[in-house]
Amino acid sequence: MRGFFKYYIRAGEVWTEVRHNSGQIYYWNEQTGETTALGEPKPRPEGRRVMRPLPVGAAAPSLLGLVGVGAGIGLVFGIIGKIF
Question: Could you tell me the superkingdom of the organism this chain comes from (predicted)?
Fold first, then answer.
């Protein structure tokens, strides 16, 4: 797995309608060269949600943090259980 994904909203882009050989329509962004999937609706003026992968290192600290919190909680409950 390459990491988790984050959505970015990009507004103000110009999309041109293009007809594929199959007859389906897709949209092409002249500014970025990006295209939508066949049959995907035209991106709205307020922007398109684009899913981009985060680097692997960006996901690791949060996962390690959760493991650390879990271990800490387990340790605290273990100590409290021995006291009472």
Answer: Eukaryota
